[in-house]
Design a protein that fits this description.
heterodimer; A: about 110 residues; mainly beta; five-stranded antiparallel sheet; globular; B: about 110 residues; four-stranded antiparallel sheet
Amino acid sequence: DQQVKQNSPSLSVQEGRISILNCDYTNSMFDYFLWYKKYPAEGPTFLISISSIKDKNEDGRFTVFLNKSAKHLSLHIVPSQPGDSAVYFCAAKGYNAGNMLTFGGGTRLMVKP
Amino acid sequence: NAGVTQTPKFQVLKTGQSMTLQCAQDMNHNSMYWYRQDPGMGLRLIYYSASEGTTDKGEVPNGYNVSRLNKREFSLRLESAAPSQTSVYFCASSEDGHPQETQYFGPGTRLLVL
């Protein structure tokens, strides 16, 4: 049973508009969440993270929102650019799970010019 | 700084063959990890090493062995490859395993087992 789920395998948006990528989790022991971006034939690269003591973290065009009661987080990209086209993975860490990251299945984002 | 490097980039094996995937990092990180990525499954942790000389099982360790050769290198061995091990394998490293730090990934090794 997947503890971290990204229910949308793909998302297509127009350049300049907002992209919203969603992630749900089931394990209430998770206390730190990360988003990774992956281009084809490359490894994932860290994008942004959020601790469970916060509900929002912003870094330039990227904002992550955390709703602990709903066990839901989202990544907002504003404005979206063609170079943002990639697969985005949500990941979570539990405070009692050492260094282990649990990943979602990924969402492929396509930003159309 | 090359970051995290992996060899080979691509490998085809026959069922029952063995091979070792190599990983090295030049960031002086203490922790290293091996993941596999399968379609729709995200990345799943196979093994990790919190420091030189230590290794621990992750979510999907069966069929694999690892060696933390030194602080820089962490290898993954398939003793008898099976078609179910067809996947893309990623190595990663992090500085000291602090809960709020990030992991840095290599470019991956694509493995096909026939």
